[in-house]
């Protein structure tokens, strides 16, 4: 067995979570500030790629047993369905709605239908990035 | 506001996404595909009817008002093309069921087939030039996948060329859009039309128009830019080749029609270029077809020459010429795909697509032979089939406008087209029965022919009932030549 890069493993475990947390922040910041599903998704994907790089493919596949093609599909489905919802109330496709709700802990919060749409994009970006990188990586053997 | 317009885009997209989850089940894939394409066909016919009765329909996506948000616009041209492309998709889908291996269907054939239709329908319906680029990309990426699926060596080599040439032209597309936005500050096509007609006709606009000509010319395979087409359309199996041959270059022609009637109608230089290029395209295309001895290759090269006629029609730029262009476009979508599917049938029977290796198909498979004959002479433009009337309108329009030279070229092209179609018929259908595959004689192809029947019936119908269809085309051309109705319905002035 090869030498295990202990430092890399230890640092990756910490850093990956920092990146993931930041990507979640970016994702929620996205509606009226810089950020959003696309950037958040890329950031999350980079954290996952870091995991794949420092540990090997098999280990991570055991930990994250997702079929990324289906992640892309779910993301697309979520985004499209969010767009369709407005059509049932007589608005054009992709119309977005928002309002302010008092929520516990968070206080007065703006909830928008753009959020599930953004979540869809997030899933598509994460799924696509990892699918591409893993396909290229698996091509090696 | 009419949500009906989005449905021909939305249905295949939603269904395609759902089908990704059912990758391994052949039955579910087939059933869902047929339902969604069938639904698309019904809705698009209904949409055309509504547009015909009530005039141009628009929808502002996300409820953002017109020059700022993205609009979808269904006028006579776009709605009837959506209906035609849906019909073609249904035919190709049924043909694919008969000919495709199970493995191909498991490799996401159906989702990407549906995404291709999203791109095609979207390109027809959008009223925003950047959105047009997006739908073009959706269409191209799906076509990259469909064209390289199966991964034979030849196929991969040709699809690589296809990918590169299309990516380069997409880059120029973006550049052209950026120029246009820099000059006018808008991307909405109706708004562009207004802004550009208010501008003095400056050199910049001509430059942009020529860059657009390069972009759409590459996509629709006109004269110096067609070299990628014959090989890459030869590579994929018949059902996909038929869809590509029938639709993808025609989307390029549609965008040329749309941009030059709506955005750049004031530029005589571009129309001169279109006339010259159109003449060269059809003549050089048909020479290529005459020199070939391969069933599919002849048809693929013929696409180029047929596109030349449409380019010529846009170049002449009178209402009659535009009507003829549309009629010819519709005829070509139907007949060209039918011929590609017939080539697929011939290959299925004999195991080869080389003309000299097969002969005597008329004796062994008479129904197939005569159906092919109808489509072939329709392509060559023999009355009373549809090809004749499209060409006739174009020729009359050309004489009225005084473009005698290009008309002479188009008539010569017609003769050569007839010659190359008869070459196929004489070498492979006449003569003694001789096939590379000894069992070929007893192969039954009835099931394969059924999906093609509607296309053949339609070419006969378009020819026999040319009067009402030509009337419709003229109405459509009026609508295109006078963009005020389009502009008013989008900008609501």
UniProtKB/TrEMBL annotation, chain A:
Predominant subcellular localization, coarse grouping: membrane
Keywords: Cell membrane, Membrane, Transmembrane, Transmembrane helix
Alphabetical list of Pfam families matching this protein: MnhB (PF04039)
Transmembrane portions of the chain: 12-30, 36-55, 67-94, 114-137
Compartments it resides in: Cell membrane
Domain Na+/H+ antiporter MnhB subunit-related protein: 8-130
Any one of the GO CC terms: plasma membrane
Metal-binding found in the keyword field: no
Xref: InterPro entries: CPA3_antiporter_subunitB (IPR050622), MnhB (IPR007182)
Membrane topology field: Multi-pass membrane protein
NCBIfam families linked to this entry: PRK12573.1
Family according to the record: Belongs to the CPA3 antiporters (TC 2.A.63) subunit B family.
Name listed for the protein in its UniProt record: Na(+)/H(+) antiporter subunit B
Organism per entry: Salipaludibacillus keqinensis
From TrEMBL, chain B:
GO term, biological process aspect, one: ATP synthesis coupled electron transport
Gene Ontology cellular component annotations, sorted alphabetically: plasma membrane
Subcellular location: Cell membrane; Membrane
Membrane topology term: Multi-pass membrane protein
Coiled coil regions in record: none
TM regions (residue ranges): 6-22, 31-52, 72-96, 108-126, 132-150, 162-183, 203-226, 238-257, 269-291, 298-320, 326-346, 367-389, 401-425, 445-466
GO terms, molecular function: antiporter activity; NADH dehydrogenase (ubiquinone) activity
Domain annotation NADH:quinone oxidoreductase/Mrp antiporter transmembrane: ranges: 128-417
NCBIfam families assigned to the protein according to its UniProt record, in alphabetical order: PRK07691.1, PRK12663.1
Protein name: Na+/H+ antiporter subunit D
The species this protein was found in: Salipaludibacillus keqinensis
């Amino acid at each position: 067995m090869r030498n295990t890069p202990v430092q890399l493993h230890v640092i990756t475990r910490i850093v990956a979570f920092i990146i993931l947390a930041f990507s979640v922040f970016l994702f929620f910041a996205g509606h009226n500030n810089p950020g959003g599903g696309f950037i958040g998704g890329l950031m999350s994907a980079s954290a996952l790629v870091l995991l794949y790089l420092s540990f090997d493919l098999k280990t991570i596949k055991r930990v994250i047993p997702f079929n990324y093609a289906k992640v892309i599909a779910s993301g697309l489905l979520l985004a499209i369905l969010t767009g369709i919802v407005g059509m049932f109330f007589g608005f054009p496709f992709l119309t977005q709605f928002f309002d302010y709700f008092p929520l516990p802990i968070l206080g007065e919060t703006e909830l928008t239908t753009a959020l599930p749409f953004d979540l869809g994009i997030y899933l598509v970006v994460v799924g696509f990035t990892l699918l591409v990188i893993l396909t290229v990586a698996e091509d090696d053997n | 506001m009419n949500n009906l317009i989005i449905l021909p885009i939305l249905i295949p997209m939603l269904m395609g996404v759902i089908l990704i989850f059912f990758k391994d089940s052949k039955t579910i894939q087939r059933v869902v595909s047929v339902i969604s394409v069938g639904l698309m066909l019904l809705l698009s016919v209904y949409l055309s009817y509504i547009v015909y009765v009530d005039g141009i329909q628009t929808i502002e996506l996300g409820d953002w008002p017109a020059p700022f948000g993205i609009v979808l616009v269904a006028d006579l041209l776009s709605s009837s093309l959506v209906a035609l492309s849906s019909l073609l998709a249904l035919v190709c889908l049924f043909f694919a069921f008969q000919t495709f291996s199970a493995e191909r269907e498991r490799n996401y054939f159906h989702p990407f087939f549906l995404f291709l239709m999203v791109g095609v329908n979207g390109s027809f319906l959008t009223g925003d030039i950047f959105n047009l680029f997006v739908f073009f990309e959706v269409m191209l990426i799906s076509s990259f996948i469909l064209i390289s699926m199966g991964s034979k060596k030849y196929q991969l080599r040709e699809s690589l060329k296809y990918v590169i040439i299309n990516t380069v032209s997409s880059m120029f597309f973006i550049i052209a859009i950026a120029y246009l936005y820099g000059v006018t500050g808008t991307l909405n096509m109706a708004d562009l039309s207004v802004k550009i007609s208010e501008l003095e006709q400056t050199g910049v606009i001509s430059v942009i128009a020529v860059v657009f000509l390069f972009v759409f010319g590459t996509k629709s395979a006109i004269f110096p830019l067609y070299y990628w087409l014959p090989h890459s359309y030869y590579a994929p199996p018949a059902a996909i080749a038929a869809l590509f041959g029938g639709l993808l270059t025609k989307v390029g022609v549609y965008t040329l029609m749309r941009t030059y009637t709506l955005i750049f109608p004031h530029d005589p230089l571009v129309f001169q270029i279109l006339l010259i290029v159109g003449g060269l395209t059809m003549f050089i295309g048909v020479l290529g077809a005459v020199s070939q001895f391969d069933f599919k290759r002849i048809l693929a090269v013929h696409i180029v020459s047929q596109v030349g006629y449409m380019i010529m029609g846009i170049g002449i730029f009178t209402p009659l010429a535009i009507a003829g262009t549309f009629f010819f476009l519709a005829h070509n979508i139907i007949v060209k795909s039918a011929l590609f599917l017939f080539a697929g049938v011939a290959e299925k029977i004999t195991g080869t697509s080389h003309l000299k290796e097969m002969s005597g198909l008329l004796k062994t498979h008479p129904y197939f032979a005569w159906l092919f004959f109808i489509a072939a002479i329709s392509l060559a433009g023999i009355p009373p089939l549809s090809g004749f009337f499209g060409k006739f309108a174009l020729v009359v329009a050309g004489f009225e406008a005084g473009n005698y030279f290009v008309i002479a070229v188009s008539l010569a092209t017609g003769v050569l087209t007839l010659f190359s179609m008869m070459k196929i018929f004489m070498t492979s259908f006449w003569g003694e029965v001789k096939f590379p595959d000894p069992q070929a004689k007893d192969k039954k192809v009835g099931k394969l022919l059924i999906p093609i029947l509607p296309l053949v019936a339609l070419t006969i119908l378009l020819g026999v009932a040319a009067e009402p269809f030509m009337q419709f085309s003229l109405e459509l051309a009026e609508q295109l030549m006078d963009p005020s109705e389009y502009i008013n319905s989008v900008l609501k002035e």
